[in-house]
Amino acid sequence: xxxxLYELCGTDPARIFSPYCWRSRMALxxxxxDFESVPWRFTETDRLAFVGHDKVPVLVDGAKVVADxxxxxxxLDAAYPDRPSLMRGNPAPYRLVAAWNDAxxxxxxxxxxxxxxxxxxxxxxxxxxxxxxxxxxxxxxxQVTADRAARLPAFREALHPLRMVVRGQAFLGGDTPDYADMxxxxxxxWARSVSDFALLEPGDAVYRWRERMLDLHGxxxxxxxxxxx
Amino acid sequence: xxxxLYELCGTDPARIFSPYCWRSRMALxxxxxDFESVPWRFTETDRLAFVGHDKVPVLVDGAKVVADxxxxxxxLDAAYPDRPSLMRGNPAPYRLVAAWNDAxxxxxxxxxxxxxxxxxxxxxxxxxxxxxxxxxxxxxxxQVTADRAARLPAFREALHPLRMVVRGQAFLGGDTPDYADMxxxxxxxWARSVSDFALLEPGDAVYRWRERMLDLHGxxxxxxxxxxx
Lengths: 229, 229
Prior knowledge:
homodimer; alpha+beta; four-stranded mixed β-sheet; 9 helices; 4 strands
């Protein structure tokens, strides 16, 4: 049985845009593990009934089925200990990395790009997406991002902890990337896949870090369909 | 030669208030290593001439002299591998923890308590401290903290990543503390040692985490001179 990764997309099955799917996609590449991408859309919860879970990513790895990007990372380190490590035997500090990323990077990006997502979705998913996100934000999505240019400096400033680290070393993982890089990069790949809004300036150490991540694995992330840099 | 830790204090040598000194102090306790605290004040740079460094903490560990809390943590893990680990063989993700802490927790606390520090200092250090900090903030220290009650909700909100993790587990390190806990706790111990301004509410998961940290090693941190909770 081929290894399969269920990943979120819209009308274009090659345009994977869930930040969590990008974490798993980069984790598999880091481990050097081939996989077949199984496109999945927001409304196809019935296709995940076999998992007992309603969200992607879902990894089918032989007889093992793993839902949730965090559990997928733990599984990959446990099942393939001889391949490059994701969390190097100690997942604990990566939880704070993920919590920081979700509260800061990802929440910040959402408010900068969310209105660019609906045009990429089929009709049924678009209705689901717009309804659920407008409920979350309490306003039309166009209104969420209306002042995004004005909020961009604050978003860039909020990246300061990341900037401090990647000024002094190539990756959050040190000389080589680890799962901390994949967590944060996933959010940037989400933005890149759905929006041409420029989040980073080329002179920024975070920009240069993102370039290094885009170059990994023969430019795997760089080559996927995208709008932004 | 007894193990010695040079630590920042004011007129009371038992009131250690540098957040970085607290990181090292907790790290030594975590390792179960005895040490003699050597009180040091801001103006006593000549007493650190033997280190080639002008800040504390400085650890003198037998023939080895280590400056900087980060390097002290690395040294302790390398020199005492059979004792409880601080960074579990992989320092990389702790760098982002430290960068997040410094940019968010510590910078936030500074703006809430900095004006409470001068009364704890002798005259010479007080002049140094007030002058250098007023230059950094660009205003009198009393003005920095004047609206602290109004800014407290934003500070508590900024602790969200920490809160997310310690809601689900006892420590950032998991079931037991590790150096991530010590990094963040150091900032809270700084506040507790110099100010009675209440940073946290008892109902907050971050408050309960701080209580667990205060209880470690027979209440070592709890028993030091302090104002706040």
